[in-house]
Write a structure and sequence with these properties.
Helix content is about 80%, strand content about 0%. By secondary structure, it is an all-alpha fold. It has helices at about 5-15, 25-50, 60-70, 75-95, 100-110, 110-125, 130-140, 140-150. It contains eight helices and no strands.
Length: about 150
């Protein structure tokens, strides 16, 4: 199997059988691949919007944060984690105050400013993913064995 084939196979398997059924290392790769697809399709702000919390207790970014940290995109993970924390605070105020204009809370908690810092990091992680491809190349046999064992 080539790195390209592993990339495709991991995403297909995770999509078809459920990411949670993949070995942990393949889950990390699956979330990185899913991230790149989101960004390629909807852009950096589309990714942030689509993965923003929709309740006060769910962090949709969590598996992506783990994946980015695994692939050493720590600055991106830290910024998105901060964005999530601030988003949750804004969301709580929004709910508490009768679900009025969310833009008020978005400004109050600095979400636009954080997003401006995140977008170039998302683009960098998506476009300059040589570390991910290098990791794939170095681990082809082990990854293929994990895929075969699913």
């Amino acid at each position: 199997m080539t790195s390209d084939e592993i990339w495709t196979e991991v995403y297909d398997r995770g999509y078809n059988i459920g990411v949670e059924k993949l070995p942990s290392e393949l889950q990390l790769l699956w979330y990185y691949i899913d991230f790149t697809i989101y960004v390629d399709t909807d852009g950096p702000s589309g990714f942030l919007y689509n993965k923003s919390p929709d309740t006060e207790h769910i962090n949709h970014y969590a598996p992506y944060l783990k994946s980015w940290r695994f692939f050493n995109y720590n600055n991106l993970a830290d910024l998105v984690e901060k964005y999530n924390d601030q988003f949750l605070k804004a969301f709580a105020e929004f709910k508490k105050n009768g679900e009025t204009d969310f833009d008020i809370y978005q400004k109050q908690f600095g979400l636009d400013e954080i997003e401006k810092k995140i977008e170039p990091k998302i683009t960098e992680a998506n476009c300059k993913n040589t570390a991910v491809w290098s990791w794939l190349d170095q681990n082809i046999e082990r990854l293929q064995s994990q895929i075969d064992g699913i």
